[in-house]
Automatic annotation (TrEMBL):
It is found in: Cell membrane. One of its GO terms (molecular function) is UDP-N-acetyl-D-glucosamine:N-acetylmuramoyl-L-alanyl-D-glutamyl-meso-2,6-diaminopimelyl-D-alanyl-D-alanine-diphosphoundecaprenol 4-beta-N-acetylglucosaminlytransferase activity. Its EC number is 2.4.1.227. This is UDP-N-acetylglucosamine--N-acetylmuramyl-(pentapeptide) pyrophosphoryl-undecaprenol N-acetylglucosamine transferase. It is a peripheral membrane protein. Residues 4-136 form the Glycosyltransferase family 28 N-terminal domain. HAMAP family: MurG. It holds the Pfam family Glyco_tran_28_C. InterPro entries: GlcNAc_MurG, Glyco_trans_28_C, GlycoTrans_28_N. Its main location: membrane. The gene is murG. UDP-N-acetyl-alpha-D-glucosamine binds at T11, G12, G13, N121, R162, S190, Q291. PANTHER family: GLYCOSYLTRANSFERASE, UDP-N-ACETYLGLUCOSAMINE--N-ACETYLMURAMYL-(PENTAPEPTIDE) PYROPHOSPHORYL-UNDECAPRENOL N-ACETYLGLUCOSAMINE TRANSFERASE 1. It catalyses: di-trans,octa-cis-undecaprenyl diphospho-N-acetyl-alpha-D-muramoyl-L-alanyl-D-glutamyl-meso-2,6-diaminopimeloyl-D-alanyl-D-alanine + UDP-N-acetyl-alpha-D-glucosamine = di-trans,octa-cis-undecaprenyl diphospho-[N-acetyl-alpha-D-glucosaminyl-(1->4)]-N-acetyl-alpha-D-muramoyl-L-alanyl-D-glutamyl-meso-2,6-diaminopimeloyl-D-alanyl-D-alanine + UDP + H(+). It comes from Pacificimonas flava.
Length: 368
């Protein structure tokens, strides 16, 4: 058994992959400790117990007046992470992006420990860019990840997803024919997206009656949009379950024929692992436009359509949904193309790299 230290920032996009890899390392008999920030500690169902530590972390933004405070927090976090490293004595340190990774990796590098960083998006994140040249290895989720500097080693592993999502890679696409219900899943990220609440119900209402009658919609919305979305579906005569929180996303994904939503890294990785076609609307304010970059491989494969938010209208959505759902073979083919670029074994691949850095597996293990 070996000790591993994982570091992840306080959003689901960083914490869920870290949790998936932690569970895999524990399954292999290792012990895992997490360092995160206060936001990460609040995410339910992840890293409960004594193996989770909160450290100071901060972003160095564009306001110079805030730099001294941010630097103080980063230095404090480095000292905290250093104390944890001395207590745990990890064989390797793995970072998953987010602010706590910077002080944790600084402490790991100072201790001369093997280091691995994981990038979920198709554009290397700010924190990972700061430390990429110094760490031993980068695990990339996408081929041709942008803004990667020259570094020691880059391996395309895919983005680790939840085990119950990865399991969908072995399950067939839900039955679909000219008469059966068509199930749509609409998600807007962790807090929903008002543009989806506005456009999707109105767009689906424009579909031909014969197609509209077959729809079954599950849509996540913000609390402020809940009543309006419910009313819009009722007025359109479309059966819809509207919720501010979808608790069982893997279960919903298993039943879904078509996904509509944002294109965060975890969303795209889960869609490709499960083999679910999608209409994706990238968040326009995402740093470095990374959500649009995340769609590139999937769109090129024919498993999704990407619509920029300014062009995301009810009429345009209705046209695209009709094209994808009019014939069963169209959506079935798109599902197969989505699955063709999936990497459902990403969790195992990242765990393999961590073990390799710790000297526990052959050094010549390669991934494409």
């Amino acid at each position: 058994m070996s000790e591993f230290l994982l570091a992840a920032g306080g959003t689901g996009g960083h914490m869920v992959p870290a949790h998936a890899v932690a569970r895999e390392l524990e399954r292999r008999g290792h012990h895992v400790t997490l360092v995160t920030d206060r936001r990460g500690a609040k995410i339910p169902g992840l890293f409960t117990g004594n193996n989770r530590h909160i450290i100071e972390a901060a972003s160095i933004g564009s306001n110079p007046l805030k730099w001294p405070g941010a630097l103080w927090k980063i230095q404090a976090g480095r000292r905290q992470a250093g104390a944890i490293i001395r207590a745990v004595q990890p064989a390797a340190v793995v970072g998953f992006g987010g602010y706590p990774v910077l002080p944790a990796m600084a402490a790991a590098l100072r201790a001369k420990l093997p280091t691995l960083i994981c990038e979920q998006n198709a554009v290397l994140g700010r924190v990972n860019r700061l430390i990429a040249r110094k760490v031993d290895m980068l695990a990339a989720s996408f081929p041709d990840t942008e803004r990667v500097p020259p570094m020691k080693a880059v391996v395309v592993t895919g983005n680790p997803v939840r085990a119950n999502v990865a399991a969908l890679s072995d399950r067939p696409f839900p039955d679909i024919n000219e008469f059966c219900p068509i199930r749509l899943l609409v998600l807007g990220g962790s807090l929903g997206a008002s543009v989806l609440s506005d456009v999707v119900p109105r767009g689906l209402a424009l579909l031909p009656q014969a197609l509209k009658e077959r729809l079954q919609v599950l849509q996540q919305v913000r609390e402020a949009d809940f009543r309006g979305v419910c009313q819009a579906y009722e007025d359109a005569g479309i059966p819809a379950e509207v919720s501010t929180y979808v608790e069982d996303v893997p279960g919903a994904l298993a039943r879904t024929h078509l996904f509509i939503g944002r294109s965060g890294a975890s969303t795209v990785s889960e869609l490709t692992a499960a083999g679910r076609p999608a209409i994706l609307v990238p968040l326009p304010i995402a740093t470095d436009d990374h959500q649009a970059a995340n769609t590139r491989e999937l769109v090129q494969a024919g498993g999704a359509v990407m619509i920029r938010q300014p062009a995301f209208t009810p009429e345009g959505l209705a046209r695209q949904v009709e094209i994808m759902l009019e014939r069963p073979d169209t959506i079935i083919n798109a599902a197969a193309r989505a699955r063709s670029v999936g990497r459902p074994d990403a969790t195992a691949r990242v765990a393999d790299l961590a073990e390799r850095l710790a000297g526990l597996s052959p050094p010549n293990q390669e991934y494409s």
